[in-house]
Amino acid sequence: MTAYRRVRVPVPGGELMVGVWGTGTRAVLAVHGVTASHLAWQLVAERLPQDTVLVAPDLRGRGDSGALPGPYGMARHADDCVAALDALGCADAVVAGHSMGGFVALVLADRHPERVRRLVLVDGGAPLPLPPGDTPEARLSAVIGPAAARLTMRFADRDAYRAYWRSHPAFADWTAAIESYVDYDLTGEAGCLRSKASAEAVREDSIDLYSGDAPAGAWSRLRHEALFLRAEYGILGAAPALYPDPEPIAARMPVRTIDGANHYTILLAAPGAAAVAATL
């Protein structure tokens, strides 16, 4: 699948930017992670058959939806995603979510069950223990580390931002897909460039992800066919995995571990993307 375009969808507070690959009649809604953008799904989209259209929003507070105001949270993102399906004429979809996007996917299925054919949760969506720390910021740093730190950083130019990402241990193998994903995240004036992700959105969503009623309720009420794709390695590219023990998840749905993939490269490297696309 190679056709790619971006569309703007009206939502409360402004417009949601949505990446769309393909022109088929079979829809996949793909939801990215907490500090990511729709371009996290580009390698997966390129591996889907021609009869499939992949709809991937920039969630409120990220990418070119970065200026959309709060409130944030999984329920708000779920409703925004449904607005994207409506705008593109998709009655229902296979709904896939990576990392925080998995929690959004679960809540979407709970709030709008008729729009979901089945769920594919990619290293996210299953309950996570509350991370260590006395404040939301400390807990966020404990979980996503460098991804959280960059939201307050400023960069002199594009090369400096690429260099920052190249030093991330999860990206040992730098690729064109990773580079385009990183470049898209950059905004601001020359000499003072920054991530498009809103620190406020990331903070509010992280609180909701770990302790909100909507994700917990959606997990307890899960009634759609679902599959969990688990990365062998974690956010920093090494053990432990984000989900070190798959057994509690396996009690609710099948779990497949993608060997060799870490939390990022399960989408942003060819072997992980191929496994996700084959599942979709």
TrEMBL record:
GO terms for molecular function: hydrolase activity. Residues 27-148 form the AB hydrolase-1 domain. It comes from the Bacteria. InterPro entries: AB_hydrolase_1, AB_hydrolase_fold, AB_hydrolase_sf. Keywords: Hydrolase. The keyword GTP-binding does not apply. GO terms for cellular component: membrane. PANTHER family: AB HYDROLASE SUPERFAMILY PROTEIN YCLE, MONOACYLGLYCEROL LIPASE. This is Pimeloyl-ACP methyl ester carboxylesterase. It comes from Thermocatellispora tengchongensis. The lineage of its organism: Bacteria, Bacillati, Actinomycetota, Actinomycetes, Streptosporangiales.
